[in-house]
Amino acid sequence: MSTLTLELLQQEIEYASTNDDLPGAFEAYNIVRDWLNRKDLVKSNPREYSQYLEYLMKLKFLTLNYFDDVQEYYELLKNYFALSQEIPGFDLWAKLEAQLVSMNDINERDNFKAKLREALEKSESLLFKRQKYNEAAMPIKVSEWIKDFIVNLGLDRFDKLKKMEYLANGKYVRLLNNEDKDKIKNLLDIYEKLKLSSKLPAGYENTVAMNIDGKRILFSRGEVEEISKETLRQIQDQKAYSSSGDDLFITPSGSAIPTTTLEPPVSDNPIVELEQALKDYPPSSLEHKAISQEISRLKVMEFKAAQQKTNAKK
C-alpha cells in the first residue's frame, strides 16, 4: 500500500471481504492504525481523521477473530456497529459465532453474549440519517431500534410469528427501503441470538454430529438433520488431518465413535480442502453449515497461533 488513499482502502476492504483475505485485511489494519498514530489528523483535519477511522474499523470487523479482548468487541459494536453493515458480503454473526465456538466454557460464552447485548443496547451508532425518511420519530440509532424490538416483541425469546409480522408491517420497518430493511433484519437476528443462552439447545453455537440408531445426525441450534456420507467423509478427513484431538461424532451418552481410516487429503491445507467441499452444498443446507463452522474453527486456531508467534517475537 504505497499511497494510503480512501479509494485504495475501499478496494482493499471489498477484496478482503469477497475473497476472505483476512491476513491481507489484518496487514491493512495495522498499516492504517500506525499511519493514524503518526499523523496529527485528529487535530489538524478531524474530518479526514474520521474518514480514515471508519475504514480502520471496517478492517477491524473483517479481522475480528484476531482479537480476544471482550472489551474490544464491546467498544466496536457499541460505537461502530453500523459500519459492519456497509461492508460488501460481510456476515458479522459468523465472526461472533466463531469467537463463541472457540470458548469451551459455556458460562464464558453467556457472559460474552451479555456484554455484546449491552453494547448494542447502548449503541449510538447511526444506521442511517433521519432526514432520509419523512418520519420525525423514526429510530436511527442501533439502541433506538433495540428499544423498538423490545416494545413490539417483548423481553423474552422473540415469537417467530410476531417477528415475521414486525419485519413485514412494523410501524417504522415498513417505511424503510430494502437496503435499510436488511440492516434492521441483521441487527434483529444478531440481537436475538445474543439473547439466547448457550446452555439452551437453540442457543448452542456448535454444530454437533451425532450417531443415533446408526444414523449420522447434525444437531444445530435445536434442529436435527441427517447428513450425507460424503459430507461426513470430508469433515472427518480434515478433523483427522488438523490433529486437533477433537472427536467429531458423539452418541447421546457422550462416547466417541471411532473415525474410519481414510485417504489423506490432497491439499496440505485442510482449510483449502474444506472450502472446495463447501461449494458442493447450498448455503441453506446443514452440510454447508457444518463445513463452514469447521472452516471457522480452523481459521480461529490459525489466527491465535499466528498471534502467539508474533507476540513471542516481541
Provide structural commentary.
The two termini are 24 Å apart. This protein has 314 residues and is mostly helical. Helix 11 packs parallel to helix 13. The protein is globular and about 70 Å long. It has 3 domains: 1-64; 67-200, no CATH class; 206-313, no CATH class. The model is unreliable at 241-267 (pLDDT under 50). The protein is built from 13 helices and 4 strands. Strands 3-2-1-4 form a 4-stranded mixed beta sheet, with helices on one face.
Question: Key terms for this structure?
Answer:
mainly alpha; 59% helix; 13 helices; single chain; four-stranded mixed sheet; 314 residues
Largest sheet: 4 strands, mixed
Helical/strand content category: mainly alpha
N/C terminus separation: 24 Å
Strand content: 5-15%
Give the strand tally: 4
Strand arrangement across the biggest beta sheet: 3-2-1-4
| Average pLDDT figure | 80
The protein's oligomeric status is: single chain
Helix tally? Answer: 13
Radius of gyration: 21 Å
Total number of domains: 3
> What is the H-and-E element order?
HHHHHHHHHHEEEHEHH
**Helix share bin:** 55-70%
Query: Unreliable runs, pLDDT <50, ≥5 residues?
Result: 241-267
Shape: globular
Describe the secondary structure blueprint for this structure.
Elements: H1 6-19, H2 22-38, H3 41-44, H4 46-62, H5 70-84, H6 92-101, H7 106-121, H8 142-153, H9 160-169, H10 178-195, E1 208-212, E2 215-220, E3 223-226, H11 229-242, E4 249-250, H12 270-278, H13 286-313
Parallel strand pairs: 1-4
Antiparallel strand pairs: 1-2, 2-3
